[in-house]
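#structure-requests
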Amino acid sequence: MTQQIQPIFILPENTQRSTGKNAQRNNIMAAKLVAETVRTTLGPKGMDKMLVDSLGDVVITNDGVTILKEMNIEHPSAKMLVEIAKTQENEVGDGTTTAVVIAGELLKRAETLLDQDIHPTVIAKGYRLAAEKALSILNQMAENISENDKSMLKKISITAMTGKGAESSKEHLSEMAVTAITSIVEKDKETGKTIIDLQNIKLEKKVGASVEESELILGLVIDKEKVHYGMPKQVRNAKIALVDAAVEIRSTETDAKIHINDPMQMQAFLDQEEKMLRDMVEKIAKTGANVVFCQKGIDDVAQHFLAKKGIYCVRRVKKSDMEALARSANGRIVTNFDDLSEQDLGSAGLIEEKKVGDEMMTYVKECKNPKAVTMLLRGSTEHVAAEVKRAMEDALGGLASALRKGKIVAGAGATEMELARHIRKYSETLSGREQLAVNAFAEALEIIPRTLAENAGLDPIDILAELKAAHDKGMKWAGVDVFNGKVMDAFANDVIEPLGIKTQAVSSAAEVAVMILRIDDVIAAAKSSVPPMPQGSMPGMEM
């Protein structure tokens, strides 16, 4: 009699599991699909995507990270490619599509090697070696740049905006971006390093006018209006008091009752309140301030007194705006009226209230040497304005990255082609199977010029052959001219990108590709299948 062997269940019911080559194939397929999705948006001739969420909100963009965030991706290894794009956005601010496309291509090339029975750890080792070599080659290839080289900075900005919705006004917007970034650059006194905090450039988008009408304010734009109609609409040579205290009578911290049994007492009580508010206003006026930005509230009576003295006031200003005001107007935020003195006041050439769209806003303009500035970005519709803002974020991120590292390279696929050539040579110095992986890495980098050519409707095979020939002849910056289908010197034709975009894209793409390749078992827990509780019932109640 044969004995029945009882099956052993280790994992809970409905757990899905794929192992070995099957798991690798699925992971690579998911990552490749994500890369394919954003691939068509690359370059000056890239197309846009329209994303509609469950509520019917529409986003139209060709910004890689925005597309991936809005797509709501479920597959675990596809999510890892979204993480690359997010990291690229946070670290460099541009080049998100490049990073994702390279990662997808690295996995595609790895799949071919897996079919040849090359072990994943061998491929992973080869990719790591190639990425390490690529970073050192990139640093050697790069050219230097400084913040005084305004024309080169403008070229970086124009390159970042080309192919985006804001391309029609790229000259005007790039001029704004360069002025903004150079005004907030600071040097670390000890290390001499360049410090750029992009938080000091405030991007305000308003629908209504054309993109051309976007403007840079050397100061701040605050979406608040003056508190009293009797206050001046405009203040020249403004002396600004920044107050983080309420211009109101403070209520007692403990519960207190005041018994009044005589109307005269009541009047004295009100007179005293008024006197206290008048004293507060006098303290402000005595310092010579003619503008007050208050982080907290301003009492109605105090508003009246301030208006009589011709002081322009704004209340309930955000903390971040207060800090930006202190940086642009060179003032100090004071938390107590008794401490307010003339030395604490900031200054601005002009403060005025203006209507933008259908909102009243306060402009703080003509600040001397401001360390915080505002860009007011316009667009004829909400979608246009949002895309202009995204393009500006890419341009500013690129400029900041270029100035922090002080190094730039050419775009148009030139850098990737030169890198591929060097890595191919490097692979010949290796023995063993890693050589195949390093060679695959070099081929994967060629996806960038290939994609640029495909998106422009050119023949990628012809273009790549021409590019290879040019690079072999020593043309370091030979790239694709997508507008006339020829090979050009990208550096001479002003297609310039910061080195940071390339180093970050190559290293993060290699790391994620290696991580996905090393997975040979995917265990997905069962979805929770607890039925929803009927309304009105309690747990444990019998229905």
